[in-house]
Design goal:
The protein is mostly helical. The protein contains eight helices and no strands. The relative contact order is 0.18.
């Protein structure tokens, strides 16, 4: 068993969790899609399970969830969703040295500055949670 990060530093974990309480500039459906896509990229099984369930609870169709890993080849996502997903992928893959200029410019066609900040914070915090989930070997819990 790995370290109990919640017990060891509960203030920091609560602080990270509190960021999510201030991201209501975007709707819950888009937020869940972004959290799911970032988690897929990062390979966090726990977070993929969590955010796929949240997406379904927010009314997301199973077909769109199935096609999320290949959203660029699909016609199932709106232009604004594609812009947000592209931004999420660019920020999640910073180590690959993506050019953020084009992705950011595309975001401005569909989202206000407040929404762009919220989208960016969703992506940034999800990347942090994924690193916690993977680092501490969190696993999905089977549900019937």
């Amino acid at each position: 068993m790995r370290a109990d990060y919640r017990a060891i530093n509960p203030d920091a974990i609560r602080g990270l969790a509190s960021v999510g309480k201030h991201l209501d500039a975007i709707d819950t459906s888009l937020r869940a899609l972004l959290e799911l896509r970032v988690s897929q990229i990062n390979g966090c099984a726990y977070c993929v399970d969590k955010h796929a369930n949240e997406s379904r609870e927010a009314g997301e169709s199973q077909q769109r969830l199935d096609c999320l890993p290949v959203w660029e080849e699909s016609e199932l996502f709106s232009d604004d969703e594609c812009a947000a997903l592209a931004w999420a992928e660019v920020l999640t893959g910073l180590a690959d040295r993506y050019d953020t200029a084009e992705a950011y410019e595309n975001l401005t066609k569909y989202f206000s500055e407040e929404e762009i900040v919220a989208i960016t914070l969703v992506v940034a915090t999800m990347n942090a949670w994924n690193r916690i989930g993977v680092g501490f070997d969190l696993k999905p819990i089977y549900r019937e």
